[in-house]
Amino acid sequence: MKKQISMLLLLLLCFSTLITGCWDHIAIEDLALVRTIAIDYLPGRRAPYLVTLAISLPADIAGGETTGGGGEPTQLFSAVGATLNLAIEQAALNLSRRLFLSHAEVILIGEEMAKHGLLHILDFISKHPQARFSTNLLITKGFAQTVMTTSERLEVAITEEMIGMIELARYSPKSEPLKAYEFIQKMVTPGQDAYTALMVKSPPLEEEIPELKNEQKPDSQGESSGGEENGDSSSGSSDSSGGGGSKKAQEILTLAGLAAFQNDKLAGFLDSHETRGFLWFLGRTSHTLLAVENPEKPGETISLFIARVQTKIKPHIKNEQISFSVEVITEGDIRSQTGRTEIATPEMIKKINSAKAGAIKQEMEKALHKMQKLKVDLVGFGTILRRHDPETFSSLEDRWAEEFSKLKVDIVVTSNIRRTGLQAHPARPQR
Amino acid sequence: MLEKGKISPRQSSLLLIMALIATSILLVPAITVQQLKQDAWLAVLMGTLWGLVTLYIVCWLGSKHPGQNIYEYTQTLLGKWPGKIVGLIYAWTFLRIVAIVIREFGDFMTTSFMPNTPLSVFSISLIFLAAWAVLAGLEVLARMNEFIIILVISSLFFILSLSLNNWDLTRIQPMFTNSLLSIIKVSFIPEVWAADSITLAVIIPFLTRPRQAFAAGTIATLFAQGLLATGIIAVLAIFGPFLLQITRFPILTFVRAINVGQILSRFEVLVMVVWVAGVFIKASYYLYCACLGLAQITGLKEIRPVVLPLGTVAIIWSFSMFENIGELETAVSNPRLAPLLQYLGIPLFLLIVTWLKEKFDKNKPRRRRNEKAN
What we know:
Distance between the termini of chain A: 112 Å
Shape of chain B: globular
Structural class of chain B: mainly alpha
Structural class of chain A: alpha/beta
Mean pLDDT of chain A: 81
Number of strands of chain B: 2
Number of strands of chain A: 14
Largest sheet of chain A: 10 strands, mixed
Number of helices of chain B: 15
CATH architecture of chain B: Up-down Bundle
Oligomer: heterodimer
Strand content of chain A: 25-35%
Strand content of chain B: under 5%
CATH class of chain B: Mainly Alpha
Helix content of chain A: 25-40%
Distance between the termini of chain B: 16 Å
Order of helices and strands of chain B: HHHHHHHHHHEEHHHHH
Number of helices of chain A: 16
Low-confidence stretches of chain A: 60-71, 220-247
CATH superfamily of chain B: Amino acid/polyamine transporter I
CATH topology of chain B: Amino acid/polyamine transporter I
Mean pLDDT of chain B: 84
Number of domains of chain B: 1
């Protein structure tokens, strides 16, 4: 009996430890789910890190209601601090819930921050137990904070909009967003420089094409737009939000181009054409359209669809002289032409093939030239050399950036056009 | 005999697999990649070799002294008191491993999952369970392990297979850039070295078929180290050696990076399963070895009185051994002389003594015949 009572007491003691719960327990209703973190750098300040957190309210997303005054599914909270952690702690003072970073899928980094260097951000991501190592890193031109104020178009929140773009970027070689761990991997690997996609905020097309603008002038005001022709910087956003009720076209986000880094610092930007030129080196340019001039009739354009790409890069070392050969094999169809030339003949296809190969080679050389000018080895020629011949590379490792900038690269492109679509012959008008 | 239960060779093999894989899967990738870059997996294969050497010696000793474990045959070989001292060294080693394992477990949980929870919560709850398991005896421990190992191994295979589409094997090139000497040096780090087979020296007498101990141990060592080498190749193929260097728990980072079609992601909980279950078995197993040793050396009738005291010692030891994670890391990532002696030196010495005794002791054949008659 005595033993049984003591057992019972022991059991009660054990269960009492269970009901206290864990130290780190927190209910989901008390969490503020951070979806995007925008980080800007304000040079010359004591607290230079400007952090903007896009916090989504789970209930609103589930309900899908967007009407009403406070119905915004995403709320922005900003704060400055001497380090990222301090800035986030500061921002948390404005919140009624506890911050939760595990759902932050996008980290937007302002241009100034990227120029200053990403070491602190990457350190933050890899040390923080909540932060995801697979967060997407995006660089913005100008301030990252202003990108966050763009209003969403197709999705419920701006973060979802950006995630959608990042997902789609896989199908178009105009940018190449990297996840945090991929970025760090490229940064720490010798003979390889890091890059990630560029998120650009620009005014809508009607403000860039004068004819369209004149057409629209009578019915909408549009007077402020003259000053912001270059509109990808900060000035645009305040106008669009200040516009209020009047029907002014919203500014749009574009995921195009690359930000190239030397070590952890921004070295320069590649525009979307250069980006594709660069992606040929990685063989990641399938599902894209390429325009070449009709070899028979100059002035007419033929659009080609690239279905498959294969790229092989090989290093060659001859008398201490290092060169690389790049072999690109592409396969694809013809999609359309602006004229009415008979295309589907073997001779014509042969000519188009060589024109296409020439265009690809030109694009690649342009991108390579840009990378060599910036001294960023985004392709990882150094890594390829290291795998091939570790000793030669280790003797060059310290001055690889210099070595890369005058590297000789032979590009050979083979093009195969297989099909010309459903139409056998072009439709020819009578006259 | 202190232990009345018997386990089958298969159960001993599974126990050994758990002891080998439980902590090494989290720590070894970081340690080896730090020093050998993309050749890290070679050190693991090399460590397997040393592990098999230890295993062979241990099994040979076991077959020469049937019915006795290392605490007993040291006394018959070296005399009563020197034998007891060697036995104490082993009990001390096993207890130290319990302490290190508890500390690694606590530090892993606090750094990656529950930063606000004090270390003692993990240590005390783990040792409480481990002591309970030890009191239940070896047979219960082995049977429980048969169930838990399914969880652990299937989680590991699940994680590895999910990551397959991200593998890029060019990242483990160039191969063989490190000198053989540096690979050998890394392979002598206790964690890398498959030295857990030394525990077979304690449990061989409790096997239903002691002759099969070597086969069971070999299967366990090859399987566990093979899995570990695959794990290292997997993390290398995904992150490359230079990114891996900066991570503390590469397998965790690896799992954090898994994202199949935006749906299958965040499998940290599986790492937690591997870690908690594996560490629990490993800590119980080693605590059992230590307790049995102390009980046998001091001539106790049963193991019960020493379990809780040794568990308490292990907890306090785990707190006081390392001030911070930096010290822990340095301690587990460098080859040291003491483990080399414990896992290879002393067994080798015992082997030589047995061999010499057999050669010069003329009474030996008669005694063996008597034993067989019994």
